[in-house]
Amino acid sequence: MKLAVFDFDSTLMDGETIDFLAKELGLEEKVSLITEEAMSGRLDFFESLSTRVALLKGLEYNKVLSICKNLPLMPGALELIPKLKEKGYKVVCFSGGFRTATSPASKVLGLDADFSNILHEKNGILTGLVGGDMMFSSSKGDMINRLQGLMGISKENTLVCGDGANDVSMFKYADIRIAFCAREVLKKEANIIIDTKDLTKILSSI
Question: Which of 41, 64, 87, 187 fits a disulfide with 179 by CB distance 3.0 to 4.6 angstroms?
Answer without folding.
Answer: 187
